[in-house]
Specification:
The structure holds two protein chains of two kinds. Chain A has three domains: about 5-240, 3-Layer(aba) Sandwich (Rossmann fold); about 250-335 and about 420-500, P-loop containing nucleotide triphosphate hydrolases (Rossmann fold), CATH 3.40.50.300; about 345-420, no CATH class. Helix content of chain A is about 35%, strand content about 25%. Chain A is built from 17 helices and 24 strands. In chain A, helix 4 (about 120-130) packs across helix 5 (about 150-160). Chain A is globular. Chain A starts with 5 loop residues before the first strand and ends with a helix. The mean pLDDT of chain A is about 90. By secondary structure, chain B is mostly helical. Chain B has a domain at about 75-285. Chain B contains 15 helices and two strands. In chain B, helix 5 (about 95-110) packs across helix 12 (about 250-280). The longest helix of chain B has 28 residues, at about 130-155. Chain B is globular. The relative contact order of chain B is 0.17. The model of chain B is unreliable at about 1-25 (pLDDT under 50). The chains are: A alpha/beta, B mainly alpha. The interface between A and B is large, with 50 and 45 residues.
Chain lengths: ~500, ~350
Amino acid sequence: MSEYLLQMKDIYKSFNHIYVLKGVSLNIRPGTVHALMGENGAGKSTLMKCLFGIYKRDSGEVIYNDEHVDIKNAKDALQKGIAMVHQELQPIPERDIAENIFCGRYPLKQVGPIKVIDHKKMHEEADKFLKEVGLNCSSTTKLGELSVSQMQSVEIAKAVSADAKLIILDEPTSSLTENEVELLFNIINKLRKKGVAFIYISHKMEEILKISDEVTIMRDGTYVGTWKASELTTDLIIKHMVGRELTNRFPKRENKPGEVVFKVEHYTSPNKKSFQDVSFELRRGEILGIGGLVGAQRTELMEGIFGIRDKIDGTMSFKGAELVVKRPRDAIVKGLALLTEDRRATGIFGVLSVSDNVGIASLDKYLDYGIVLNHKKLKLVVDENIKKMNIKTPNNDTPIQYLSGGNQQKVIIGRWLANAPDVLILDEPTRGIDVGAKYEIYCIIADLAKQGKSIIMISSEMPELLGMSDRVMVMCEGRLTGILDGKEATQEKVLELATKFM
Amino acid sequence: MAKQTLTEKEGKKLMNEQSPMNPSFVQKRKLVHLIKDNIIALLLVVLVLFVGFTQKNFFSFANLINTVSNVTPRFIIALGVSGALIIRGTDLSAGRAVGLAGVLSCTLLQRNDYADKFFGADFTAPETWWYVLGIALFVVFISMCFGLADGLIIANLKVPPFLATLGMQTVIYGIARVYSNAKPIGGLRSDYTSIATAPIFQIGTFNFKWLFLFALIGGIVFWFLYNMTRYGKYMYAIGGNENAAEVSGVNVKKSIIKIYALAGVMYGLAGFILAAKSGGASVNLGQGYELEAIAACTIGGVSTGGGVGKVSGILLGVLVFELLKTSMQYLGINSDWQQIVQGVVIIVAVAFDVRKYLKRS
């Protein structure tokens, strides 16, 4: 019996003959949490997909429990005791917890000549596993009624129910609040003691250093190394990930907030649970951070301002004149821009080219005779953006879906900059983006503010919020609970305001 | 504890042999993809060559003209449907709209001396070209109204396009029956039928008919719309991601309405020329054409996932279908079997097409 539960040795994988994994190795000991780190595009997901048989590896071997294995699909993996909890959970919201846990392998009982699902046993078992992961719900609860963190617990319960020896957590905390992260860590610790191993994929350094035993770092599809977590620091990890030292996590800001350009007064959603009576002001060249927990209705407020959601009360003024927004177009022509939170759902046009993705919001600017699109003008804007923002793409015609998350984000920022807006609303601008690209996006934001653009930035990452904002506005349950000066804002003060009504 | 297991040399060797920097490798790869992506077109070329060299008269001007004549109305209908498909909708009312437009045209463009005139013996129409043109515009306008209604229903009432246009299909058919008493209409004026038969110019036995001009202009106008205007860019954007399009300032509702209205225009035009070509029309004119047009678009690379589709592809799709039919006729395959083959071709083509947009792995 070797000391490892899982060994992936020298894995190579190519797409269209371009190598994305170049000899990567990963060794997991039983009963440990093993963090897998690397920038977006480093090959972490590809490696996991090779493990799960979603992609077929070109070469290299996988040894699990001292046996050479070739896992065919997720079901096969689960039977072998390997489970994955995805970043974007894939639950069946209309069915109850028990069915979600046992989907595909329902306990059966014999009734006469046929086998039917044993609902009683299923619920009993499910309740047992829910208790094990510390979830206080009945297994008859519809999954759709749970919070994201509870759904995650259900996923883990599912893994436990299959007697998983190895659980892979892909960005498990990306949409959890701090309390929920604590709960998750408790579950992990409990299972770790029982001998379950975890592969923990995350960008969040603090968490990694807190929870993991060992850390493997990848860069550009290559294996950089494996370290004991106790030997590492945030700076060291970043250095290994990006291959250079990052002295500052945030760029120096040279913007000088000027006069008030944008005012929102008494904004109220028809939905009682959403934003209620929110008023704030935004200055020229200012970065206004918006903090709050998940569910604070920050995104909804911004979507209300941008005309995506309805409001029943409230007014806006922009440069002294009243601003009426019925649909996004009204806001855009007046000089507003909104970088949405969910890039895939409301940001990118996956099948369209980088060029089309940049141009779509500013087509009015490239017209000849008021109707014919001048592709040369469009190309100038696209090329300028690609250069200015250091977007890595094979060419302008590449469908955006083939770019990494960070580059996609930069393309969408480029889309808005092409319109030369005065107010940019950025909703979680660095979510799911690796460290290097994050820094680049911070630089872009700082630069825009310096040019006199006003920026509203929603962020759930405390360091980012505190590190980038001139002022921090905090919301809790749809209401504004306070606005802090950037210099005075601390994590404690923000959290206090963010939990004011809880 | 850190160890460098990257086999630098091995990796580099592999990278050099099979890298995008290696021109001979890239060319080979491009060729493979080119063949894979155009497999249907290639198979068709093989079929056409085979039929051409084994069957007499397949490679003749007469057959060419006949094929192009058949392609013209179908191409125009396919152009109409393509917009709806690109925005991930569909339009099942196309065929019946063509039928109504044909019936309308015929009733208004009968010979003044025809015995069984639709509007009775007392109805006489001016015998000038502008009257024909006026009727054409009128028919196209009526057809556009139905398209507009489709668009309004889909954009505002959020009825799924499949059902909205299925309903409209039945409504239009009913209207055509009520209007014409379900009687076939014939006895068309020669200045009307000549748009489908008369040549603009003639080289030897090759007649370049007026009819072809419609296809040519339709193709050019749509190419222009799809590539050179906001209309096209917005259409592709809506097909690519409707929510993102709205956020990016596209008036999605307005675009959807425009797209379906324009589709109506094309069905009106197709009905007008199809009736002229057939020398008459009944309520069953155009029946089932919507499915053929949808199939042709898909064969031509209009992706079922939305956001993708080119005018050249649509033309290719229509050609594939028509040449397939003609080839089978020349080979003497009985018409029931032809149906089966056409069905299989649709399925195979779409299966291949879907593969194109799956991430290659």
